[in-house]
């Protein structure tokens, strides 16, 4: 039996289908983007980006749209399908990389591993390997990750602050020599005029970003976007209110962190504890 053809002429790609439905429903109701923003209480630009498939928005926004249009959960269902589509991670990450290149400053928090911008080649290779990448693909991805460090170089390089959970520094590489190089590199990077490295010790207890690896990008237009990531997926947060909530959490964690000078002292202590004897 031949496969059935789509009869609606609508996109079969989850993210695009969600955006199409949003555009259609607004057109049928006769709302402008500005009116929609005023009625629901979110910036109208958010709805514009959702209709262009530039962002999915949050579940709260989609639930409000469902109520406004009387669609009884249809939009939330489409949103869940779009958010769960495995191809979306790559698309979101490509957009994140574009924004990262434009950012005037970056603030980062690491739960368990160093950010790519501070990794040595050895660290990147080991991390990508345990993630299941090998062969030529591994070589390409290591080269791409190391190449990203150019972002932090030059007179116009953005300001970069990375706050590391102590867990990051308590999780060494299997090769002591490579781990030694990584810690030395971390100290060297922290001496640059545009880079600040801080450490949050275990003894501060639980905090707002305990399990949330995140990067904040301050863009030339003054707005901030956030990238929130696990080991398996990531989400680009573009809604202003959501990004601001995350930013507040980051500020609270920064209050708990060691000062840059105390952090350097702690990293140096970790370095001194590393055995540089070649593994057998």
What would you note in describing this structure?
With 280 residues, the protein is α/β, with parallel strands linked by helices. The chain is built from 12 helices and 6 strands. Strands 3-2-1-4-5-6 form a 6-stranded mixed beta sheet, sandwiched between helices. The longest helix has 17 residues, at 240-256. The radius of gyration is 22 Å and the shape is elongated.
Furnish the topology, listing elements before pairings:
Elements: H1 14-29, H2 33-40, H3 44-51, H4 59-69, H5 74-84, H6 87-102, E1 105-110, H7 121-130, H8 135-147, E2 159-165, H9 166-169, H10 176-190, E3 195-200, E4 213-218, E5 224-229, E6 234-237, H11 240-256, H12 260-273
Parallel strand pairs: 1-2, 2-3
Antiparallel strand pairs: 1-4, 4-5, 5-6
Helix pairs in contact: 1-5, 2-3, 4-5, 7-8, 10-12
Question: TL;DR?
Answer:
By secondary structure, the protein is α/β, with parallel strands linked by helices. It is built from twelve helices and six strands.
């Amino acid at each position: 039996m031949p496969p059935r053809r789509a009869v609606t002429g609508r996109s079969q790609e989850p993210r695009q289908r969600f955006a199409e439905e949003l555009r259609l429903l607004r057109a049928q109701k006769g709302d402008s983007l500005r009116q929609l923003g005023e009625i629901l209480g979110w910036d109208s630009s958010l709805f514009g980006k959702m209709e262009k498939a530039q962002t999915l928005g949050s579940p709260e926004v989609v639930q409000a749209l469902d109520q406004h249009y009387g669609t009884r959960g249809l939009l939330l269902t489409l949103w869940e399908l779009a958010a769960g589509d495995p191809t979306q991670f790559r698309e979101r990450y490509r957009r994140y990389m574009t924004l990262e290149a434009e950012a005037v400053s970056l603030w980062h928090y690491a739960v368990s591993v160093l950010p790519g911008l501070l990794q040595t080649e050895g660290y990147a290779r080991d991390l990508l390997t345990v993630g299941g990448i090998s062969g030529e693909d591994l070589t390409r991805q290591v080269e791409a990750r190391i190449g990203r460090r150019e972002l932090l170089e030059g007179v116009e390089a953005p300001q970069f602050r990375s706050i590391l959970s102590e867990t990051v520094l308590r999780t060494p590489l299997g090769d002591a020599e490579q781990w030694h190089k990584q810690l030395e590199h971390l100290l060297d990077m922290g001496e640059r005029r545009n880079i600040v490295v801080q450490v949050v010790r275990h003894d501060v207890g639980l905090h707002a970003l305990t399990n949330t690896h995140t990067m904040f990008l301050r863009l030339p237009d003054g707005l901030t976007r956030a990238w929130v990531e696990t080991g398996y997926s990531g989400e680009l947060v573009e809604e202003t209110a959501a990004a601001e909530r995350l930013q507040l959490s980051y500020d609270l964690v920064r209050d708990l962190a060691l000062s840059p000078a105390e952090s350097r002292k702690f990293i140096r202590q970790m370095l001194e504890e590393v055995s540089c004897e070649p593994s057998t």
